[in-house]
Structure formats: structure tokens, C-alpha cells
Recover the amino acids of this structure.
């Protein structure tokens, strides 16, 4: 079976439309981030307490909120897990940066006590309780940013060594594009940024580059074979030649990510969602961001030399 | 042209066998992270300033003694701040004498003399040594306590290089609050003579002393949980401290209430005997972590080497106190920075869901590969299964911890590692279309795709390595499975997959068609 028989799609014709689309998503993402006063960091990064509880009987969310209101914790974020109205995630409101871990912990304990006091809620089990102090959150944020930046630099160097600097820069711009698109969608869909999500973003960086390199590799080969064609034509040919591979690999990866998203459980759900966005964005950006950038670079720098 | 398959088949089977040997049975061989088996994860910070502070106090006492011995006059000596001592009111003719003394006996300090003042600053190297020691001692003490409490396979280690943070992971602990308290208690026991008190407030306590705390004295509070509260004026220098303890255990007092009985070393017992004989009728405060637990009256000279701490203890509290006294005091106080408690049921749930997702992902990808590449797809299925087995073997060999994100890494590996197969197959198809023979197409397909596979995978591994560097627990697990999985995929999809083609084709003389 073959998906495409000798595809000859003029991908690069649509590059401006692609720039517009990416620009639109990223712009609305930035607007959303500004509107929400920054990214929605989970307890890992923002600090705070996250309690996961499971009631024996189905319990409506309003009753839980009511119980918490009585002790002045009505602002806590309550999120249902699954659809049985039994399992919930409760996150205490974020305290000021300076507050010590103890303050978060006391709030966490207050929540548990308040729920215990309201006997009509029935028995419940605390599945997990996580408290992260502001110092750790701050550290993690710094480390995550550093890891992402260093990973990008490491890849830039690798590609510059194996290919050319223009390919490296195109690849890095593509990856930045993917990170921005993913972060935008996370903000637009109100997802929290926690440790696994950062792991997902870094994986996307690796994955998207994977795609980009496969095409660049082809370009390198084709440049040796056919010297008569224009650079743009060679780029377009290379995209077409690797198209079935791009689609097949993206599809198998997407299959596994979907399995994770639907079957992996709530704990890993944000991770799976991020990966899903990233796989799609990574595939699209390889064709529509990295190649046009290489082309633009080529048109600007190589033409002048002549 | 035929390629020899013998040694390649041997190597493949050897790696397969080794991986199975390493990973079987997986329940025992593969270490699960806390997020999968439940337990507590704590990150704590040792307040190393405490260690410097204590050292400064002790040095002040020593300095005072030495100054007296050398008959050097001064008006006051005090701690300016931690690691900094100020002596005031010295005479200029004694300056040389002070210099000699400080040079000879206080080499750990830098000093400067200005007028009638001498200021001493702890050397930076000494301070950092003390801080380092404080963290190391804290780790030892915590390990002692955790061991005595009986936690299987605890992880207690310093986080980062030379930092002041300690990571404590205790799998399968049921009562996190209790363990946290046991770890956090400084457990600094001091028996101090009471000068005055108890009094309801500080003013009443210091009425007879002109409202000022006398030299060599300090005020300590009564522990509200054990005593009626109030304030005590006690001698700064303790009669005995936790260091003089030989043992401690839970017992009961004469009214059958739980208490803690401790025995002293012989030198401790001697000092205890001397102090009790000289101070009959006065109170002796038992101070734990700066709070008076009880202050019994000394009725007679006590020659015994054991004594008890009484208070309103529950059996559990008495047990825990005896435990921390046995394990020794922390050299500095600690603060929790992060704590995560994961219940065992959530962990089991995560494992179940993770496994389901993995199996479904495997089946979907395998099905697709066979559907799309027909018989050659089976080739990639074999490679994929081998990849999973090698992954398990490598996890067991490196003693890597499998976490939930780690399972996600495995699932991703399934999707991404067939990429190498896809690259090869697509190249073979292209070459077949160009009219090459099957054998030639396979040979050129593999060789052309290899460079691409290498370049593409190296970049993913670069990302994973940085992730490993920065990551904590679960995320590290993800990076590990991804790195191993992708590396293994290069072996299975290039080496093993080629081998399968060669074995299958070796049996036939002429190959005209390839199912791909």
C-alpha cells in the first residue's frame, strides 16, 4: 500500500499562508497569556498544595466547594477527574512568593480537615498530596528554561556541524515555532504547565528536529545529484520524496500519543495532550517553517555572492 | 552476493538472551518510582547557618576562657552576627599578646584590630567546611532515624553537588505525618540547671535580675504540650547533652504513663552525679530542641546512669522520641521545601493504565506497519518487540527507576522507533521503483537511510540528555527510557532488521519480488 504515488505538491507555494496561520495561533496565544497574567503554572513551578481525593460515593463539586468555603478556602481550584463525580483534584490558591512551605501545608491540612468535618460528603481516600515550596518552584522554572535553551544550542551546534549553519538556524527557528505554538495552545486550552509538560515540550523539540533533519538530509543528497534545478525546486522535491515517511512516522507517533491520551490516565493526560499538539505542529512546521527559512536564507545570502 | 548471517544472528540472540536474563522477572528486577508504588518524596533544606552559629557560640566560650588564662583584659565579647565575633575594650599594650593568642589558637578565624576593638571573622574555607559537614551529618542522622523506623529501600541523598538540600524518598510509608516529624525533630537534648522560674512571662522571670538576662544564662520556654508552659531562666552550659547518651527507650513511669528512659555514658553519668549532688533542691530542666519538657526537683545525689523524660506522651510519641534520641541530634535545623505523598492505590492505578496504554499503542503500531508494509512490516514488528525487551533489560541493568513519565517515554519510543524502519522501507521502495533488484534495493536502502537515522536520533538524544540533567525524579525516568529506547531502536531497526531481510532472502536463489 502506498499513500502517495509520486507526489508533486507545490508545498512552498503556500508558505505565506502558513506563516499567517502560525502567526495567528502564536499571536492569540500571546494575547491569551497576557490576558491570564502569565502562563498557568502547576504546583511544580508555582508552588502550592495539590490534593487528589476519591470519595466512596458520587459527590457533586458544589458540595465540596461549599465545605471549603466554610473555612475560607472557597477560592481553591477544584477539578473533576474522570466522569464518576468521585475523584477530584483540589489545588490551594497560590500564596505569595515569599510564603514558606509550612503555610501551604497548613492550607492542605485545613482542606482535608474541612472535608472530614462535613460528614454528608461521606468517606474519602487521599490518593496523593503534593506540596511544593516557592524555592523549589522557582528553581525548577529556572532549570526548565535553562534545559530548553541548552538543548536548542546543542542541536544548533550539531546541525551546523553536520549540515550548514543556515540549516541549523532554520531548524532552531522551527523548534522555537513549535515551542511557541505548543505553549500558545496550552494557554488557550487552560492547561497547566507542570514538570511532565516541560518534558513533553523538550521531546517535541527533539521530535520536530527529527523530521526536519530527514528533509534536510534529502536536500543535501539532491543538491549533489541535480545541479540544474533551482534551490526552491530541490527543496520542494525533497519534501515530496520524504512525504510518505513524514506522514507514516507522524501517524505512528500520533497513534501512540493517542493511546496515552485516552488510556494513560489523568496523571499523564497533560503530557499526552502536549505531545499531541507538538507532533502535529512538528510535522507541519518541518514542511512549512524550516524549508521556507532555508530558502529565504539561500535567496538572501547565496544570491549576493554571485 | 550473500552476506554472512552467522555472527550477526549470534550477537542478536545474545543481546536478546542477556536482556531477558537481566529483566526477568520484571516485578523484582525493574525498580519502580514512588509515583508508581506509592510513598513519600521529601526535599529538605539544612539550615547550615545553624552550624556556623553553634560554632561561633562555642568559639566565644573558648575565647573567653583563653583570654582569662592569658590575663588579657577586655570589657565585652559578643557575637556580632553568625561567623563574626567582636571583642571590645582591650588595652593597647596587650595587643601583641592578643595577636599571639589568636595566631596560635584561633587559626580558623581572620582577625583585625582597630583601636580597642578586635573583630574576628570565620574564614570562608572553614565556614564552607562546616556547612558541608552539617549536611553530611544531617544525612547520616536522617538515615539512622529512617533505618530505625524500619522503611525498606529508602533513598537519602544530597541533591546536587555540594548543596544544602537533601532528597528523602520513602516507599510504602503509611503515616507520612509521623515520619515527617521524626525526620524533622532536631532532637537536641540538654539537661540544664534552672536558676529561676517557671514564670508566666519574661518580665516576672527577670524581676530579681533587673530585667536583664544575666551572663551565662538564657531563657527557655516550657513546651506547651508537656508542661503548663511559662518561662525558665536556665544556665547556658548544659550539665549533659544528647552526646552523652548511650541509649534511650520507651518505658512507663510509676503511674503507668509512657515516658522515655535514657542511659548516659560514664563521663556523662559522672557529670550528672556531680551536678545533682551540688544542686539538691533546685530544678533541673530537660530541654529538647529549646523547649522545656519537664523540670523535676533534684531531691538527692543521683549516682545512677539512667534518667527519664516525663510528660503527657502517648505511646507513639514516647516511641518516636526514644528513636530520635538514639539516632542522635541533627547538627542543624531543617526545613521542608517539597513534599509529595502518593498513595499506593493511585500508583497501582497508574501502572495499570500505563500498561494498557503501552500494549494498545504497541498493537496499533504493529498493525499499521503490517498493513502498510505487508510482510516487511513483520520485520519491523520483530524489531519493535526486541526493542522493548532490550529496553527492559537496560532499565534493570542501569538500575534506572521506572516512573509514570518513564512509561510515557516507552510509549513514545514505540511510535518514534519505527521511524528508523520507515526511513529504510521508504528508501527501499524508492529504489525498487527505480528498477533496482531486490537485493540491491535493500542494500542501498539501508546504507542511504543509516545516515539520516543517525542524525535524526542524535538530536532527540541531545534533547533527552538535557532533560535528564535538569529533571527531578519522574522526569529523569522519562529521559532515561527515551534515551535507551531510541538507542536500542537504532540497533534493532538497522542491524536486526537487515539481518532478518538477509536470512529470509538467503534461502531463495532468485528474488524477484519483495513484499513491502
Amino acid at each position: 500500500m502506498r499513500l502517495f504515488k509520486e507526489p508533486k505538491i507545490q508545498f512552498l507555494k503556500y508558505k505565506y499562508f502558513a506563516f499567517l496561520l502560525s502567526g495567528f495561533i502564536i499571536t492569540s496565544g500571546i494575547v491569551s497569556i497576557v490576558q491570564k497574567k502569565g502562563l498557568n503554572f502547576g504546583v511544580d513551578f508555582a508552588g502550592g498544595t495539590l490534593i487528589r481525593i476519591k470519595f466512596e460515593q458520587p459527590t457533586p463539586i458544589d458540595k465540596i466547594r461549599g465545605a471549603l468555603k466554610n473555612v475560607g478556602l472557597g477560592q481553591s481550584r477544584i477539578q473533576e477527574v474522570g466522569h464518576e463525580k468521585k475523584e477530584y483534584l483540589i489545588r490551594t490558591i497560590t500564596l505569595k512568593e515569599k510564603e514558606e512551605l509550612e503555610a501551604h501545608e497548613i492550607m492542605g491540612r485545613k482542606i482535608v480537615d474541612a472535608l472530614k468535618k462535613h460528614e454528608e460528603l461521606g468517606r474519602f481516600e487521599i490518593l496523593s498530596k503534593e506540596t511544593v515550596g516557592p524555592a523549589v518552584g522557582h528553581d525548577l522554572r529556572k532549570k526548565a528554561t535553562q534545559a530548553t535553551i541548552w538543548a536548542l544550542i546543542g542541536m544548533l551546534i550539531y546541525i551546523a556541524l553536520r549540515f550548514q549553519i543556515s540549516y541549523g538556524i532554520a531548524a532552531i527557528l522551527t523548534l522555537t515555532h513549535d515551542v511557541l505554538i505548543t505553549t500558545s495552545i496550552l494557554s488557550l486550552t487552560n492547561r497547566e504547565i507542570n514538570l511532565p509538560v516541560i518534558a513533553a515540550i523538550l521531546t517535541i523539540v527533539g521530535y520536530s528536529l527529527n523530521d526536519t533533519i530527514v528533509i534536510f538530509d534529502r536536500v543535501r543528497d539532491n543538491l549533489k545529484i541535480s545541479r540544474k534545478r533551482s534551490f526552491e525546486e530541490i527543496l520542494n522535491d525533497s519534501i515530496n520524496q520524504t512525504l510518505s515517511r513524514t506522514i507514516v512516522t507522524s501517524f505512528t507517533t500520533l497513534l501512540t500519543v493517542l493511546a496515552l491520551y485516552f488510556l494513560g490516565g489523568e496523571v499523564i493526560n497533560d503530557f499526552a495532550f502536549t505531545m499531541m499538539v507538538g507532533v502535529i505542529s512538528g510535522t507541519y512546521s518541518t514542511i512549512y517553517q524550516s524549508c521556507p527559512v532555508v530558502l529565504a536564507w539561500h535567496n538572501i545570502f547565496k544570491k549576493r555572492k554571485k | 552476493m550473500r552476506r554472512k548471517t552467522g555472527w550477526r544472528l549470534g550477537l542478536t540472540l545474545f543481546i536478546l538472551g542477556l536482556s531477558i536474563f537481566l529483566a526477568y522477572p520484571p516485578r523484582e528486577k525493574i525498580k519502580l518510582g514512588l509515583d508508581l508504588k506509592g510513598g513519600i518524596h521529601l526535599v529538605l533544606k539544612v539550615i547550615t547557618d545553624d552550624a556556623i552559629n553553634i560554632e561561633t557560640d562555642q568559639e566565644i566560650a573558648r575565647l573567653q576562657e583563653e583570654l582569662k588564662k592569658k590575663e588579657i583584659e577586655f570589657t565585652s565579647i559578643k557575637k556580632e552576627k553568625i561567623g563574626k565575633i567582636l571583642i571590645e575594650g582591650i588595652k593597647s599594650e596587650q595587643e601583641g599578646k592578643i595577636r599571639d593568642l589568636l595566631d596560635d589558637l584561633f587559626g580558623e578565624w581572620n582577625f583585625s584590630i582597630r583601636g580597642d576593638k578586635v573583630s574576628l571573622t570565620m574564614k570562608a574555607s572553614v565556614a564552607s567546611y562546616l556547612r558541608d559537614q552539617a549536611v553530611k551529618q544531617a544525612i547520616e542522622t536522617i538515615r539512622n532515624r529512617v533505618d530505625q523506623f524500619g522503611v525498606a529501600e529508602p533513598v537519602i541523598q544530597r541533591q546536587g553537588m555540594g548543596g544544602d538540600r537533601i532528597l528523602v524518598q520513602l516507599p510504602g510509608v503509611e503515616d507520612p505525618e509521623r515520619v515527617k516529624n521524626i525526620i524533622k525533630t532536631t532532637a537536641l537534648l540538654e539537661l540544664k540547671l534552672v536558676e529561676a522560674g517557671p514564670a508566666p512571662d519574661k518580665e516576672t522571670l527577670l524581676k530579681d535580675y533587673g530585667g536583664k538576662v544575666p551572663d551565662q544564662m538564657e531563657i527557655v520556654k516550657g513546651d506547651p504540650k508537656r508542661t503548663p508552659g511559662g518561662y525558665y531562666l536556665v544556665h547556658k552550659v548544659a550539665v549533659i547533652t544528647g552526646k552523652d547518651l548511650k541509649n534511650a527507650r520507651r518505658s512507663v513511669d510509676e503511674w503507668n504513663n509512657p515516658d522515655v528512659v535514657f542511659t548516659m555514658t560514664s563521663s556523662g553519668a559522672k557529670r550528672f552525679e556531680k551536678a545533682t549532688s551540688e544542686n539538691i533542691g533546685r530544678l533541673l530542666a530537660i530541654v529538647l530542641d529549646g523547649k522545656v519538657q519537664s523540670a523535676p526537683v533534684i531531691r538527692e545525689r543521683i549516682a545512677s546512669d539512667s534518667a527519664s523524660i516525663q510528660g503527657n506522651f502517648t505511646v507513639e510519641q514516647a516511641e518516636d522520641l526514644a528513636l530520635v534520641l538514639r539516632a542522635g541530634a541533627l547538627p542543624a535545623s531543617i526545613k521542608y521545601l517539597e513534599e509529595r505523598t502518593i498513595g499506593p492505590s493511585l500508583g497501582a492505578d497508574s501502572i495499570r493504565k500505563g500498561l494498557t496504554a503501552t500494549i494498545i499503542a504497541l498493537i496499533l503500531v504493529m498493525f499499521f506497519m503490517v498493513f502498510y508494509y505487508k510482510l516487511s512490516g513483520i520485520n519491523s514488528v520483530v524489531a519493535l518487540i526486541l526493542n522493548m525487551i532490550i529496553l527492559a533489560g537496560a532499565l534493570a541493568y542501569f538500575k534506572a527507576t521506572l516512573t509514570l513519565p518513564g512509561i510515557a517515554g516507552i510509549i513514545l519510543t514505540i511510535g518514534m522507533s519505527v521511524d528508523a524502519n520507515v526511513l529504510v522501507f521508504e528508501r527501499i521502495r524508492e529504489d525498487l521503483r527505480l528498477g533496482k533488484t531486490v537485493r540491491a534495493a535493500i542494500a542501498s536502502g539501508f546504507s542511504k537511510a543509516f545516515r539520516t537515522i543517525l542524525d535524526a536520533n542524535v538530536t532527540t538524544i541531545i534533547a533527552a540528555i538535557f532533560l535528564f540533567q535538569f529533571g527531578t525524579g519522574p522526569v529523569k525516568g522519562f529521559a532515561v527510557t527515551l534515551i535507551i529506547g531510541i538507542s536500542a531502536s537504532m540497533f534493532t531497526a538497522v542491524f536486526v532488521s537487515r539481518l532478518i531481510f538477509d536470512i529470509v532472502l538467503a534461502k531463495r536463489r532468485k528474488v524477484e519480488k519483495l513484499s513491502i
